[in-house]
From TrEMBL:
PANTHER family: BEAT PROTEIN, BEATEN PATH IIIA, ISOFORM D-RELATED
Name under which the protein is recorded: Ig-like domain-containing protein
Domain Ig-like: 35-134
Lineage start: Eukaryota, Metazoa, Ecdysozoa, Arthropoda, Hexapoda
Length: 280
C-alpha cells in the first residue's frame, strides 16, 4: 500500500511540475449578443527555454473545435472541427486568438484553451471561462394602466410588460428612484416562450397614495413611476410621471382606477400585435 501511495504522489508531482511549465491566460467576454461576433484570446508563456510549443486547442463544453500546430505545414497548421453553436472565422484567427461569427443561443457554454509543449517536457495546461449569449428585447418595457392624476387615498394600479428576451427580463418598480416595497408588487403567471424571440415577462403594481408621496413628490407634484427591465447585464427602463392632486380634486374612485388597469395578458397581446404589424 505504501508503494502505491508513493507512486501516486510521484505522478501527481510530475503532473503539477509539467503544468507549471506553461502559464495560460484567456480573454473571453462573459456576455455577447445573438448574431454578433466575438474574439476569444488565449496567450501563454513557457517557463523553460528548452520547451517548444506543440499545440494550442480550443474546446466548447469539452468538444474540440479549433487547433493550431506550428510544426505542421502552413496549410494545415490551423484546423477547425464542427461543434454546435461555434462558427470560427479562419481569416481572423491566428495561433491562440480566434473569432466566432454569427453567435446563436447554442454558442453559450464553457470555453477552454489548452496549450501543450513537445519534447522533452510534454507539458499541458489549460484555462476555462464561460460565455453567455443573450437576445435583447426589441424595445424597453411598457407601462399600462396609469392615469394622469391621483389624489390622497386613491389606489394606483398598473402593469409593466417586457418584450421577449433571452434570458427573460427581470422586472422591478421604482417610485422617485426608490425600489417599491415587496407588497406593492403583483406577481403575474409565467409567460410561455415565443419561438425565435425569447420569453416575455410582466408584473403589476398596486399601492395607495398617502401623505408620504404628497411630501416627497418631485417637480410639480409628480410621482416618477418607473419600470426597470434587466436582461443579463443590460438595463432597460420606462418612466411615467403622474400628478398628485388634493382630495377635493379627485376624479376617479379606487374602483374606477382598478377597472382602467388592463390585464397582463392584454398588455402582452398589444406587444405581440405590434411585432406582427412591424414585421408586415
Amino acid at each position: 500500500m505504501k508503494s502505491l501511495v508513493s507512486v501516486d504522489q510521484t505522478i501527481k508531482s510530475a503532473w503539477l511540475a509539467n503544468t507549471c511549465d506553461i502559464n495560460v491566460n484567456v480573454k473571453i467576454p462573459r456576455e455577447a449578443e445573438i448574431n454578433k461576433s466575438v474574439n476569444l484570446d488565449c496567450t501563454w508563456w513557457l517557463s523553460s527555454n528548452n520547451s517548444s510549443l506543440y499545440s494550442v486547442k480550443w474546446y466548447k463544453d469539452e468538444y474540440e473545435f479549433y487547433s493550431y500546430m506550428p510544426e505542421n505545414d502552413p496549410d494545415s497548421r490551423i484546423k477547425t472541427h464542427p461543434v454546435n453553436g461555434v462558427n470560427v472565422d479562419p481569416k481572423s484567427s491566428r495561433m491562440g486568438s480566434i473569432r466566432l461569427l454569427y453567435l446563436t443561443l447554442n454558442s453559450t457554454g464553457q470555453y477552454k484553451c489548452e496549450v501543450s509543449t513537445g519534447a522533452p517536457f510534454f507539458a499541458t495546461n489549460y484555462v476555462k471561462d464561460n460565455l453567455t449569449v443573450i437576445a435583447l428585447p426589441k424595445q424597453g418595457p411598457q407601462i399600462t394602466g396609469l392615469t394622469q392624476q391621483y389624489a390622497l387615498g386613491e389606489n394606483v394600479t398598473a402593469n409593466c410588460t417586457a418584450w421577449p428576451s433571452v434570458p427573460k427580463a427581470q422586472l422591478k418598480w421604482t417610485i422617485n428612484n426608490k425600489t417599491v416595497p415587496y407588497d406593492y408588487v403583483v406577481q403575474h403567471p409565467t409567460h410561455q416562450p415565443i419561438e425565435s424571440q425569447g420569453t416575455p415577462n410582466s408584473i403589476g403594481l398596486r399601492f395607495t397614495i398617502d401623505n408620504r408621496y404628497l411630501k416627497t413628490a418631485s417637480y410639480l407634484g409628480a410621482l416618477r413611476i418607473r419600470c426597470v427591465a434587466l436582461v443579463g447585464s443590460r438595463r432597460f427602463e420606462t418612466e411615467q410621471p403622474v400628478m398628485l392632486a388634493h382630495a377635493n380634486n379627485q376624479r376617479f374612485s379606487a374602483g374606477d382606477l382598478r377597472s382602467r388597469a388592463p390585464s397582463a395578458a392584454y398588455s402582452l397581446a398589444l406587444l405581440l400585435l405590434g411585432t406582427i404589424l412591424t414585421a408586415t
